[in-house]
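User: structure tokens for this one?
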Amino acid sequence: MESSDKYENIRNTLSISRMATYEKYSDSHKKALDLYLWNLQISSALLECLAVCEVVVRNSVAKIIEQRYGEDWINNARFIRTMKQSRQRDLIKVRQSIVDKTIAELPFVFWQSFFTARFDQELWQNDLVAALPNASDCNGKLREVVFMDLDRLRKLRNRIAHHEPIFNRSIKTDYKVIIKIIRYCCEDTANWVESWQKIDDLLEKRP
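Assistant:
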């Protein structure tokens, strides 16, 4: 920064409490702003990959649900009764006449919820491999492992959406989990994401 006044103006605009986190990990005002900018950039890069991951997961789960309950599964009363009330509300809130539009409106947590134990018999007894054809069995705990991975990614996505610091996370691990989940569903899609992702370059440039 050319003067301390400019930094003070920027800090006051972004909020003193928000910048305090970056100042804690920096030895100058310039480095605090550099770290803030880098946090924005790595968040954006992760969000691009997360967007693909979310679409892939919801499509894989929706395909299994459709096979089990039919094309109009969003209106199937038996299917709806299998869900917790909070997830039923999610569906009813966004339900439209076109299934694909409904799928696009449902939150990440809705799709994550299908990897809880309550759906072991209802969905996954015979179809977990169909949904995740490239996954190992994780010592018989694939469904549980996927649930925890999706929980990690959901929380990461929420932090990014609320513009929170993520620079002190294990970002490389976050990225590996994203690619792992995509690869479980489709090897080619995972390779495609790896071909354009910006995370590796940004990690090398971390302030």
